[in-house]
Amino acid sequence: MEETVHYAEATGLLGSVWLLVAIPLVSAAVLLLLGRRADRWGHWLGVAAIGAAFVLGLSSFFQLRGLENKSVELSLWDFIAVGDLRVDFGLLFDPLAAVFVLLITGVGFLIHLYAVEYMAHDAGRRRFFAYFNLFVAAMLLLVLGNNYVMLYFGWEGVGLASYLLISFWYGRPSAATAGKKAFLMNRVGDAGLAIGIFIMFATLGTTQYDEVFNGVGALTGATVLVLGLLLLLGAAGKSGQFPLQAWLPDAMEGPTPVSALIHAATMVTAGVYLIARSNPIFSANSTLQLVVVSVGALTLLMGCIIGAAKDDIKRVLAWSTVSQIGYMFLGVGLGGGAYALAIVHLLAHGFFKANMFLGAGSVMHGMKDQVDIRRFGGLSKHMKITWLTFMMGWLAIIGMFPFSGFFSKEPIIVAAFEREDWTAWLFGGAALLGAGLTAFYMTRLFVLTFHGPKRWTEDIEHPHESPALMTIPLVLLAVGSVGAGFLLSTSVPDWLTATAGLGGEHAEHEAVLSHAVITVLSLLVTVLGAGLAWFLFRAGTATAPQPAGVLVTAARRNLYTDAVNEAVFEKPGIFLTRALVYLDNRGVDGLVNGLAAAVGGGSGRLRRLQTGFVRSYATSILAGALLVMAAFLAVQAGWLA
Amino acid sequence: MSNFPFLSVLTVAPLVGALVVAFLPRHRPELAKQVAFVWSLLVLVLSVVMWVSFKAGGDRFQFRESYSWIPNWGVNFTFAADGIALVMLMLIAVLVPLVILASWHDAESSKRSVPVYFALLLVLECTMIGVFAAADVFLFYVFFEVMLVPMYFLIGSYGGHQRQYAAVKFFLYSLVGGLFMLAAVIGLWVVGGKTFDWQALSQVDISTGTERWLFLGFFLAFAIKAPFFPFHTWLPDAGGAAPAGAAALLVGVLDKVGTFGILRYCLPLFPEASKWFAPWALALGVIGIVYAALLAVGQNDLKRLVSYTSIAHFGFIGVGIFAFTTQAGTGAVLYMLNHGLATGLLFLVVGMLIARRGSALISDFGGAGKLVPVLAGVLFFAGLASLALPGTAPFISEFLVLIGTFTVNKPVAVIATLGIILAAAYVLWMVQRTTQGTLNPALTEVDGMRRDLNLREKVVVAPLIALIVLLGFYPKPVTDVINPAVQATMDDIGRTDPAPSVGTVQEARR
Predict the structure, then answer these.
(1) Cis preceding linkage at B230, omega within 30
(2) Does A83 touch chain B (CB under 8 A)?
(3) pTM value?
């Protein structure tokens, strides 16, 4: 690194960015500690806390815009100080963090508002908002930390909040299991991230961002590669990327606002944040970047294929999240100017995916919690606002001009075609194919839900539109889905150049295809995919499961990834614990008890020697005397010498 | 106040209290409980004063007192505390009143005397304080062995299922270890010029062979006490049979004597042997982390499960001690404190759950969160502390152990890091099987399961939760006390932290 990273000290309003974390955290603690006493007003405290955080985030953002050095640091206290290890409890507010803060608190605020109504009939609404705000606090700490330990702190906090919210309806065994699965798979990634942090300390002697980034240049290529792969493992766990993607669709067991906030708009983007934040590490090794790109391309295609075979509205959306984050990984893996493109897509995705998840919740609200898209149909007449807002989200995610997805996804496809060698065709082709598949399965979802003949279950007579508290956030998010992309795609990359290395030199290489050709192609596959789906599903679909070929069966079973996890980890794991319990009781403890039994038994035998008969004692004395004499003789004769 | 004989007074005070409580009439159990509780609070107050008087950057050993005991053998009542001992003394002082409060009704179910139960708890406090405060090897040995007696009766007389078997096993196992140590203590006295004074002995040069044998004698006793794999099988039995309060003290404090002993005796007195045996000790630690965690996953008894989690945690402490870096060593000592808080809380909460249900078997629960939400929440919190989630104190210690170990021994640190995944597995699966899922219909028929935490129980758990969170965000007051003592121990064995392999950060900072 020729340029060194330098952070200025936070002053003025920016000195209070710690409140961004503290406000949601305190509100969560209040809601949990007060218990039922806060049931009547607790949800409004939750909403107000996030609203306050958004206002503070926005003012801090404007404050930051006026500064020359747009990276300000705030050290709160010595967190860990032992020997040469110095970890600040410190925050960093820079353009990248600011963008995330606005996304988390902004979209978060709208989802909070929606949840007030959505959860109104749930007895656990206060607890829900407590967990929700705990999540926001952890997520903000994750993006605001000024070192990797702070990031890890928020990282695990996010995992905890996600666990609590997935298993929110903990009385359902499936929800409890899904929560546990999410936490465990996240911890696998967390272990990778932790070892990455250890490597930083062992080689560079620090975990502070600036010191690590300034030192990367001195590391050997192999060290950078291993370090980067470990960070990638952590990122894959949090973002539901291959091979740690299996928890994300199961996470739909949580209430729908959770799916919108955590499993679409914010938490799952933490992996993208980690890689973007660590860009000096990832940019330093091209093999590492190739791995990231491959993970992104593979996952984006997996998500599309599986998403096309699912019938549960939330699971289709979940797999689409896996797939869209694949695009973001592709972006951050490409490096250079594509970092900023990935962040733009992340922001646009935050809007349109939250929009669609909340729309799905609105549909479920009106359809007695039905989630099977085969039992929807014709809802456009009954839920006009939900239909129109969902349409904006749908057009955005499939990348239709001029919706936000077009401006955010298409540049990533172009960037993939700009790679130096033949991999341009591989990754560019994958991204292009993914665009077509996305158009197909999202159109299938949209058509089956809102158009075609009614296929409702008998108990539904007249589905109703949701109340205003739910539709207002939908409308605002829909506006974001329409316009955000165009606005973001020009301003955000400029804004992010202030973060070291992000959005720097753009397009070092000529694309293998011209920009215009790629644009035309991507619009073409989109129209093709969407048209095909419209043609196939405009007349509805069967309401019962249909026999399917090899590919569809595989896709319905998540491409057998769950089966592999079960066969390779779960079953042997259970067998191992059972075997060890047996071994410990019979083997290790058996040895101890065996020793005790041997001593006991031996003493029993020895006791029998004390018979009380003089004749046997006399025999023993004689035998002893003979032995002693023999020994004397032996020594005398020198036999032992 | 620094001339006040804190350590001897702290050792004797609980014993006096125990005598008072033991001689209270048997039919006045409430009075006995109140006296015992107030007495333990006084000990806590005195301990806090001692904590404040301790100078973090001052002498390694403070509050030193010495009284002649058996002059012919050179045995003295010598007390002194370094930062490590100070932290453990504070842990005892905090835990004992909470355990007394938590055990309020525990002794009533047995036919034995209630006052004696609380007297035994105070006797136990006396011996525990003594063993950490002793600075004379013989005195340490005496406390080390005497400590078994009150615990033997707590388990054997007031315990649950299989209490006799568990008590005898606990006693014999520890006694065997103690005998090895006795041999080593005598050996040390012979080669060390007929003294038992720690300060004097730490200056003695011992030949390599002798040093290794003496190390082994001490180490074996401590490895059984801690316990490390493969000497651990007494703990699940004892922890499973002991009343929950006694189990919290057994695992939270008593077992720490093992790891404390290694830090205070093995490392400084036998530095060369410690280095020679370190790979073996690291191996035992790392095996313990993985092995005990897997066993914890497979348990169906709540108290046995917690016992196995502790064995895994002791593996971390062992690794931290024998990595010989300041981070790992400080982490290990901090781990001893945090584990006492977290596992103490876990044992107490599990005890509350068991007392309500009348069974310790996980399969007898299911969906309990619907009936006792606050209790389930505290159980979950204790579980989070046990799996070392950031924001709880154990995270700091586990992180320090791992990062400190990684700088010198990568394979050990990497395998140990896998332990954090297993920790999540055993905690979350336990939580799921007890408090989540469909409600076990049998639970609704048990009266106790309809009562959530009462005020007394809330008072028990609140201070522990507060301390765990506080030290999770701001561990500095404790690390500042531990750090110099660990640094001194590292100097004793002549190890310094490795420099970062390419780092220029430290120079830049200076």
Answers:
(1) yes
(2) yes
(3) 0.91
